[in-house]
Amino acid sequence: MEKLKLSIIKRLYFAKAQSIAELSTALGKSVPNITSSVNKLIVEKIVLPDGLAPSTGGRRATNFALNANNLPLLLCVAMDQYYTSVVVMDFDNKTKSSIETEFIPLQQENAYELLCSLIAKTLKQIANARVYAIGLTVPGFVDSVTGVNNSFPSTSPLFAIQENLQQEFKLPVFVENDSTAIAIAEHNFGKGKDEKNVMVVNLNWGVGLGMIIDNDLYRGHSGYAGEFSHIPLSNLSKLCSCGKRGCLEVEASLIAARENAKEMLEAGEESQLQATFSKNGYITGDQLLEAGNAGDPLAIKALRRIGYMLGKGIATLIHIINPAMVVISGRGAKAKHVLLPEIQRSLLEFSIPRLSANTKIEFSATEHIQLLGTACVAVANADKNFLKQQLTEL
Question: Confidence class of residue 88 from pLDDT cuts 50, 70 and 90?
Answer without folding.
Answer: very high
